């Protein structure tokens, strides 16, 4: 495939530049966040140092260590330059966690990220696959009883907050029926069976929260395909129903693929609330604990990686769409 037939250099430069600008704004806000909040974030770190040392540090010694670690004795612009150097190093350096001193904040967030990606990947693979087949099925049965029942039901499900749905599921399956664990990512040891058992409830919430949007997008796209001359010609030629369904799926899947990438920003937010509801050790639980503990380094690292993931997913949705759909091209854009 010739990429030049899909994009102009001007378009690629503009899209990538926009993404870089948004990323830099996030980096600046991350730097300003602990410095603009009421009080002095260094006081909380000072308390952590005293607790870790058993009270043997003097106030002056503790403050000197804080100044040295966070460069608070330097002008603000010097602090920002040092911050940029630390953030763009590998791995990024946001300093040690206040709550888990001296563990680096980045290590805490990065270790939690694997659980978030596991929950995100499995739930969306299932929800997207089910949404494709359910959407096509509803399109083939437009205005029939099943379509009239499921359409408003799916729209109603979109209005349910994921955390509320999580609480209901915990009450039913963990407290009342006692068939699945309500919290955590595994039992004593992270065996595959234990991880799977703890994954089922939070994964089910995310699937129920995202399945309606996937289904509705696929249904609308499949209806457009069914009303096209291509579909009428295929039906007139006596095409087998199974072959027709495959062709409908192939021609209606692209809008859902784009919607999947574009919804990743909402998905991260939704998954974070579900993680906290189930005490699942993902980034969402880490952010909630960091907010309560005022652990600014961990909060900065978590917001940084979240913003980066959202920016990359939005950029990927914009750039991948013309590659998977031969009808779309940005090569003619001025």
Give a brief description:
Residues 113-317 form the ABC transmembrane type-1 domain. 75% of the residues lie in helices and 0% in strands.
In the predicted model, the low-confidence regions spanning at least 5 consecutive residues are none
CATH homologous group name of the domain at 114-324: MetI-like
Cα shape? flat
Using the coordinates above, name the CATH class of the domain at 114-324.
Mainly Alpha
What features would you describe in this structure?
The protein is mainly alpha-helical. The protein has a domain at 114-324: MetI-like (MetI-like fold, Orthogonal Bundle), CATH 1.10.3720. The chain contains 13 helices and no strands. The model has no long low-confidence stretch (mean pLDDT 79).
């Amino acid at each position: 495939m010739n990429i030049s037939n899909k994009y102009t250099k001007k378009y690629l430069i503009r899209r990538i530049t926009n993404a870089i600008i948004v990323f830099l704004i996030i980096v600046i806000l991350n730097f300003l966040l602990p410095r603009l909040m009421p009080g002095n974030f260094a006081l909380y770190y000072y308390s952590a140092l005293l607790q870790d040392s058993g009270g043997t540090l003097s106030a002056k010694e503790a403050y000197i260590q804080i100044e040295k670690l966070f460069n608070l004795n330097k002008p603000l612009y010097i602090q920002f330059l040092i911050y940029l150097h630390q953030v763009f190093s590998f791995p990024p350096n946001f300093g040690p966690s206040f709550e888990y001193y001296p563990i680096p904040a980045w290590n805490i967030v990065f270790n939690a990220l694997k659980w978030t990606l596991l929950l995100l990947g499995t739930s969306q693979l299932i929800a997207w696959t089910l949404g494709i087949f359910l959407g096509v099925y509803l399109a083939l049965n437009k205005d029939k009883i099943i379509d009239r029942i499921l359409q408003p039901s799916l729209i109603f499900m979109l209005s349910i907050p994921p955390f509320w749905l999580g609480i209901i599921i915990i009450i039913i399956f963990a407290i009342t029926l006692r068939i699945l664990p309500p919290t955590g990512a595994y039992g004593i040891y992270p065996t595959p069976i234990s991880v799977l058992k703890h994954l089922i409830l939070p994964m089910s919430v995310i699937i129920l929260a995202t399945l309606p949007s996937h289904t509705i997008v696929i249904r609308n796209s499949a209806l457009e395909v069914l009303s096209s001359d291509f579909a009428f010609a295929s039906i007139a030629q006596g095409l087998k129903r199974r072959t027709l369904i495959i062709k409908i799926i192939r021609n209606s899947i692209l809008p859902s693929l784009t919607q999947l990438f574009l919804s990743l920003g909402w998905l991260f937010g939704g998954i974070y609330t579900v993680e906290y509801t189930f005490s699942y050790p993902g980034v969402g639980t880490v952010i909630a604990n960091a907010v309560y503990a005022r652990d600014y380094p961990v909060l900065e690292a978590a917001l940084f990686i979240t913003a980066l993931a959202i920016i990359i997913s939005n950029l990927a949705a914009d750039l991948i769409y013309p590659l998977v759909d031969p009808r779309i091209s940005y090569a003619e854009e001025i």
